[in-house]
Amino acid sequence: MLKKVWMQGGNLYGLARNDPEGGYFSFKLLPIGENTFGRADGSVKITFGENCLVIDGVTCKKL
After folding, report:
1. Cys-Cys crosslink for 54: which of 2, 32, 39, 47, Cβ 3.0 to 4.6 Å?
2. pTM of structure
3. Looking at the 3D structure of the chain, how many domains does it have?
């Protein structure tokens, strides 16, 4: 589950955890489209829309 997305040093990063009892881990998000970024293994895909962030095509968070 993606918890947080931030930019640092010109790169985009995410913070997530795989299960509710597991710890959080951070990772770099890579560009895969004009407004779309994701993990190298394909497990997370986010798209920046107008005033929102769409996670895996399902969850939308307001920016």
Report:
1. 47
2. 0.76
3. 1
- The confidence score (pLDDT) of residue 8 equals 94
pLDDT (0 to 100) of residue 58: 72
The string of pLDDT tens digits covering residues 10-27 is 999 998 888 878 899 999
Residue 12, SS3 per DSSP: strand
Taking a C-beta distance cutoff of 8 angstroms, is the pair 49, 56 a contact?
Answer: no
Question: 3-state SS of the chain: helix, strand, coil percent to 5?
Answer: 0, 55, 45
Range of the domain at 36: 2-62
Side chain identity at 40, as an amino acid letter?
Answer: A
C-alpha span between 31 and 59 (Å, rounded): 19
